[in-house]
Amino acid sequence: MSALRRLVAFLLASRFVRFSLVGTVSMVVDMGILQAVVMGGILDPHLGRIPAFLGAATVGWALNRSFTFRQADRSGPVRQWLRYVSANSLGLAANLAVYYSLITLFPLVYAYPFLGVAGGSVMGLAFNFTASKRLVFAAPRKPQG
C-alpha cells in the first residue's frame, strides 16, 4: 500500500475528518442554494439562509448517518433528523452570528454571501461534531444484564 493510500485510510478512520468532509459538502450545498436564491432575485441574503440551511442540514444529516456515524441507531429517521437540526442549533447560532456580521460589515461579502457562509461554517464545526456524536448519532446502547 502506498504512503498516500495509508494516509487517506488513516484520515478516513477519523470520525472528525469524515464529519469535516461531510461539512464541506454541506457547506457547498448551503452556498449553492443561497447563491441561487439571491442571484435569482427570490430572496435577499438574510432570508436566503433559511432554504439554504434546510437543504444543507438535510444533506449533512444523510451523509453523516451513512458515512460518519455508520453504527448509529437507524430507527426513526425523521426524529433523528429533527434531533440533528436541534442539536446543531447552537452551532448554527454561532454560524449565523459570523455570517450576519460579515455581510453587514463587508460589502464584498454582502455581494457574494457564500463567503460569509464559509466563515460561519468554520465557527460551528467543533460544536456540531460534538453535539452530533453525543446527541444524535450515538451508537445503540447494549442491554445490561
Which percent range describes the beta-strand content? under 5%
Number of strands: 0
Radius of gyration from the alpha-carbon trace, in angstroms: 17 Å
Number of helices: 7
> What is the approximate shape?
globular
Arithmetic mean of pLDDT: 87
What structural category arises from helix and sheet content?
mainly alpha
Low-confidence stretches: none
Helix residue percentage: over 70%
Distance between the termini: 43 Å
> What count of domains describes the coordinates?
1
Series of H and E elements: HHHHHHH
Largest sheet: none
Overall description:
This protein has 145 residues and is mostly helical. The chain has one domain. Helices cover 77% and strands 0% of the residues. It has helices at residues 3-12, 15-39, 49-68, 77-87, 89-105, 107-111, 114-136. Helix 2 crosses helix 7 (114-136) and helix 5 runs antiparallel to helix 7 (114-136). The protein is globular, with a radius of gyration of 17 Å. The mean pLDDT is 87.
